[in-house]
Amino acid sequence: MVDPVSVSPVGDLHLQDPADASSRAASSHPAESADKLPSFCIALPTYNEAAAIENCVTNISSFLGTVPARTAIIAVDDGSSDKTWEILLQLQRKFPSLILERHAKNGGYGAAQRTLCRVAVENGFEYALVMDADGTQAPHFIANFFEPMRRHIDLVKATRYDKGGTVKGVSWQRYWISRAGNLLARMVMGLPITDFTNGFRAIRTQAWTRISTTERGFIVLIEEVYLAGKLGFSFAEVPYVLTVRQEEGSESKFTYQWSIYWRYLHYIFKR
Questions:
Q1: Are 43 and 131 in contact (CB under 8 A)?
Q2: Which listed site, 18, 20, 179, 208, has its alpha carbon 20 to 30 Å from 248?
Q3: Where is the composition biased (Low complexity) (predicted)?
Q4: In angstroms, rounded to a whole number, what is the distance separating the alpha carbons of residues 196 and 178?
């Protein structure tokens, strides 16, 4: 359960009753069905997603209503400067299984990932399925993760580049930079992954706690894969289709800079 007085290094402000967190984490699905699929939460790192977060949470909640397992949504607001947090609080009244955590200031994508891991473990979920909060990952692709989750794979990555995955509406420059980087990572690191830099993934929470990441930004994704490989984790991939974000007015600062690609190379060639 979420500690009602805990404060993370980046400052968790949202306080909640542990009993409330527990009740929000549980769904009404029959126990016999839940045994067939591990319990999991959808983990949403959010920063300045006021334009997209309502549709994102609503659509995911609708899909989770069809899933025969104990589920919830955990959203971490990483110090947004827009109305993201206020909208999340309103959504929590509509969707009781929405668990919220807030950073007092922006700590970066990596910091949000570490808070998501902590809250997922505290609420007893076997898997955390991490998605972007901008609506570019359709909820129906969540079902693709179920088979490897039933096999207790440690890290299941969605892929745009294999097994039927693709991208839509993405510039050719962005596509080929990403494609080349991921091909290089696969060749050098020798791991059975085609999409290293994709944040859409399911990770077994007990495995996640063994990974001590330090990166603040998107670099954490390849740092995570690097450490998982060193620890001998099991891997799997599932296909999905990436679409460009449709919402106008989003000010998300979970963005890429050229320096990030140099940091990717650090982990690709690290031994």
A1: yes
A2: 179
A3: 19-31
A4: 9
